[in-house]
Amino acid sequence: xxxxxxxxxxxxxxxxxxxxxxxxxxxxxxxxxxxxxxxxxxxxxxxxxxxxxxxxxxxxxxxxxxxxxxxxxxxxxxxxxxxxxxxxxxxxxxxxxxxxxxxxxxxxxxxxxxxxxxxxxxxxxxxxxxxxxxxxxxxxxxxxxxxxxxxxxxxxxxxxxxxxxxxxxxxxxxxxxxxxxxxxxxxxxxxxxxxxxxxxxxxxxxxxxxxxxxxxxxxxxxxxxxxxxxxxxxxxxxxxxxxxxxxxxxxxxxxxxxxxxxxxxxxxxxxxxxxxxxxxxxxxxxxxxxxxxxxxxxxxxxxxxxxxxxxxxxxxxxxxxxxxxxxxxxxxxxxxxxxxxxxxxxxxxxxxxxxxxxxx
Length: 360
Hints:
The chain is mainly beta. Helix content is 12%, strand content 32%. Strands 6, 7, 17, 21, 22, 23 and 25 form a 7-stranded antiparallel sheet that branches. Strands 16, 18, 19, 20 and 24 form a 5-stranded antiparallel sheet that branches. A 4-stranded antiparallel sheet has the order 8-15-11-12, with no helix packed on it. Helix 1 (8-17) packs across helix 3 (71-85). The longest helix has 15 residues, at 71-85. The relative contact order is 0.15.
C-alpha cells in the first residue's frame, strides 16, 4: 500500500483514466480507503508520524510512504502505480471491469421517416381554425385539407409528452371535446389525419361553431437536442426498419451548433461537420457496426398496438468512434432529414440515439 501526497481529485481522475472502477470507503475524518479491483491504495489528507500506529492496525501491511514535492511528480507516481494496480487473473490475463457511464440516461428518438404524420418538429401550428360543416352536421372539414401530425395513436415514442404542443384539439362552441381513444368510440369524435376532417360520434344540431387546432405536416427535419444546461454524450445509434422498408430519398445526418458571430442565438446555427449521406441501403450497411437478428411479427393484442412486418435493426457504435458530445451551451444538435422530404416506403423507419446527460 502507498500513501501519496497529492490531491484526491488528481488521484481519482488518473485512476479512472486508466480504466479502473474506483471504490471508496471513509476510514476517518481525514482518511479515505480507495481501492481498484483487488489492490488497495490509501489516500490521506494529513498523514502524520503519530498516525502510523493506528494506520498499521487498520491496515496490517503498513504504509510505503512516498513524499512528493509537487503535482507533476505525484501524477507520475500515480500513473506508475496505476499500471501496477491493474488487476490480473491467476494466469496473468488483465481483468477488465465494465462500468456504467457517468450521468443520467438521456435517450432520444427520431420521427418515423416512413410516416409523414409523425413529422412534428417540421410542422406548422394552426390554432382554432373554424371548420366547415359538410352538411350532415357530423363531419366538419378544413377549408384547405392537409396532412396533420398524429401524436395520439402510438406512432411516436413517448407521444403523450408531445400532444399538448403538437396534438389536435377540437372545440364546439369553445368547449373542448375528447377524441376517441384508438379503436374505440369512448370519446366525442375521430380525426382524419390525411385531410383534417373531424367526424363526431353523433350529429350536432348544426348551429355550433367547430374549431380545430392542429399541426400541419411540413418537413422531415428532426433534431436531436441536449437538455438545457447539459452535455449529452451519445453512445450508440440504432436504425430500426420494418422489413417492407423502401428508401426513396437520400437521408442526411449532420452536426450543427451556434455561429461564433451570434453566440447563444438559435436563429443563426451553422453546420459543424459535413453531412453524412445515405443514398442507398448499402450505405447503411457499410457505415454500421452490426445488425441484430430479425425481430419477428408478434400476434395478439389490439391491432393498432402491434406491428405488421418484422423489424431489422442496424447499430452505429460511437463509443468506438470519435466522441459525439452535444453541448447545450453551444446550441449543438444533430439534424436528420430526408433531402426532398419524400416518405420512405414501408411501415417503420426510426432512429434511436442512446446517451447520457452530464453537467458540462
